[in-house]
Structure formats: C-alpha cells, structure tokens
Amino acid sequence: YAMLLSLIFLIVLVAAVVGFVFRHEIKTNFESNLNLALRDYNVTTDRHSEAVDTIQRTLHCCGVQNYSDWERTEYFTQRGIPRSCCKSQDDCSEEDLKDPSKAKLKVFVDGCFFLVTSTMESKMSVVAGIAFGIACFQLVGIILACCLSQYITNNQYEMV
C-alpha cells in the first residue's frame, strides 16, 4: 500500500513539475488549438464548436485575440460572427453579425485567449493549495502504512 501511494505521489509530483516547466508551451498549444477551433467552427454539434461557444458565453469574450478574428473564418462569410459572442441575445441580429462595424457594438470585443489564460493563472493558487493538501495526506498515508508494516513484521515472532 505504501509503495502504491508513493508511486501515485511521484506521478503527481512529476506532472506538477512538467506542467510548471512547460506552461508556456501549454499556452502556445492552447492558442493554436483555439485558432483551429475558430477556423473549423460550424453550427453542427461539433465538440470544438460547442467548446468555443461555451468559452465565449461564460467569459464574455469573442475570438482568440478579439472579435475580428472571426472575419478570417469561413463561418463569417456565411453567417457572420457567432451568436455566442453577443452581449444580448435579443439585440443581436444576423445582419449586425455580418457587418464588423455594427458587430463591434453588439458583441464582446475582448479575445478569449487572454481571458482564459488569466483565469487559469488566477486559479492556480487554489489548485496548488489543494494539490499540496492532497500530497500531505498521501505522505501521512505512506508513513502510517510503513509504520503498520513495521509493526506487523516486529510482532510476527511474538505470537504464541
């Protein structure tokens, strides 16, 4: 049991170190994947499109860097900016979403990449605290498992 807990502890420790060391690569990879999701965006039930819509609605953002990122997509030529970018769903017509100058007043202008990364960075202290607490419990479990193993081994020859 102590060996299993030690293995899990080491895996979590390595994952934390790798995540910290490669955090810039993770950001770059996220940005390129978000750009790909915008490029391939459609209104069918595609997981990537749903993720883009969810991010835009939740964080009140639009596009990767800003709302004008949508102008370079195939979706924009057909339907304009997606409705998930609208500040108010009632005050957002399809004609407004096809005209970038009108859309600027109706949609969120901030890009999602900065908002996602800043939200993640602001929550990292909470995640680190929880991970540290779990690691402490794992270490206590490892120590207690070793003590129990030692106690069982020592008392093995005293039983009559």
**Low-pLDDT ranges:** none
Q: What percentage of the residues does DSSP assign to strands (E)?
A: under 5%
Count every helix, treating DSSP H or I runs of 4 or more residues as helices.
7
Helix content: 55-70%
The global form is rod-shaped
Question: Briefly, what CATH class?
Answer: Mainly Alpha
Q: What's the alpha carbon Rg, rounded to whole Å?
A: 25 Å
Query: What is the name of the CATH superfamily?
Result: Tetraspanin
Q: What would you say the CATH architecture is? A: Orthogonal Bundle
Number of domains: 1
Which whole number gives the mean pLDDT? 86
Please give the number of β-strands: 0
Structural class: mainly alpha
The largest β sheet comes out as: none
Element pattern in H and E: HHHHHHH
How far the N terminus sits from the C terminus, by CA atoms, comes to 27 Å
CATH topology title:
Cd81 Antigen, Extracellular Domain, Chain: A
Question: Could you please describe the fold and organization of this structure?
Answer:
By secondary structure, the protein is mainly alpha-helical. It has one domain: Cd81 Antigen, Extracellular Domain, Chain: A, CATH 1.10.1450. 69% of the residues lie in helices and 0% in strands. The two termini are 27 Å apart. It comes from Podargus strigoides (Tawny frogmouth).
